[in-house]
């Protein structure tokens, strides 16, 4: 179940949270490092080279979003936000700054572990020959083909680019801006209607019931997540 030996940097000013995560994650074979401030986090990220960061936003010296921005200037290490801030705007800002995922407190350890496993899977560059499967949906990035119940689905180039990005980040929430940048380019970040229309069209082609999607899940006010088993 665990990625034994991987190093997790836990950044939180609450000693009880750090102790709880250290105990839970160490028992599963992870090596856990700790930081109580943003400056400690930046220093540890540079010197200890963790495989993933679990980062609180409400730090006493530097806001967690700024920590994300600074780390993203030189590193692609996965960053999972763990915060009491549950407003949509807070999630969007953190994810747009470069965080990989966002989990609000209080949290369940099983959900946290699932998010960690997703982030760890994406710590290396995506392979172009990836084949993604969940239930009756199959996406072959090498052949640029999409199948539902074994039948090939005809997608427009934009629809394919959209599902490709979702597959490459399967299990992770992508904000509206992130999807617009990656599929259409930076000049289209304010064209949210383009994203809504193409998501709707894509759902009609791959979902058993587009009104109750099973694959492309909506994160209200934030973005979309491609479901993983």
UniProtKB/TrEMBL annotation:
- Keywords carried by this UniProt record: Cytoplasm, DNA-binding, Phosphoprotein, Transcription, Transcription regulation, Two-component regulatory system
All residue ranges annotated as the Response regulatory domain in the record: 7-120
Q: In which domain of life is the source organism classified?
A: Bacteria
One GO BP on record is: positive regulation of DNA-templated transcription
The molecular function terms of the Gene Ontology recorded here are: cis-regulatory region sequence-specific DNA binding; identical protein binding; phosphorelay response regulator activity
The job of this chain, per UniProt, is described as:
Member of the two-component regulatory system KdpD/KdpE involved in the regulation of the kdp operon. Upon phosphorylation by KdpD, functions as a transcription regulator by direct binding to promoter regions of target genes to positively regulate their expression.
* Protein name from the UniProt record: Transcriptional regulatory protein KdpE
User: In which organism is this protein found?
Assistant: Anaerolinea thermophila (strain DSM 14523 / JCM 11388 / NBRC 100420 / UNI-1)
């Amino acid at each position: 179940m665990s990625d034994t030996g991987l190093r997790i940097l836990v950044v939180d000013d609450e000693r009880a949270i750090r102790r709880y995560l250290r105990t839970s994650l160490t028992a599963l074979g992870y090596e856990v490092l700790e930081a109580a401030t943003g400056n400690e986090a930046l220093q540890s990220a540079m010197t200890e080279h963790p495989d993933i960061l679990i980062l609180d936003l409400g730090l006493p010296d530097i806001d967690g979003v700024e920590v994300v921005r600074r780390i993203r200037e030189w590193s692609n290490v996965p960053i999972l936000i763990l915060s009491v801030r549950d407003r949509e705007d807070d999630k969007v800002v953190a994810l747009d700054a470069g965080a990989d995922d966002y989990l609000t407190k209080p949290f369940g350890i099983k959900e946290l572990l699932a998010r960690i496993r997703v982030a760890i899977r994406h710590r290396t560059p995506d392979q172009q020959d990836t084949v993604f499967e969940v239930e009756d949906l199959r996406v072959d990035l090498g052949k640029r083909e999409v199948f539902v119940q074994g039948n090939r689905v005809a997608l427009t180039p934009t629809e394919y680019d959209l599902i490709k990005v979702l597959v490459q980040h399967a299990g992770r929430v992508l904000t509206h801006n992130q999807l617009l940048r990656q599929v259409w380019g930076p000049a289209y970040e304010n064209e949210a209607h383009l994203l809504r229309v193409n998501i709707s069209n894509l759902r009609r082609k791959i979902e058993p019931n587009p009104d109750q999607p099973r694959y492309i899940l909506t994160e209200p006010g934030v973005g979309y997540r491609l479901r993983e088993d």
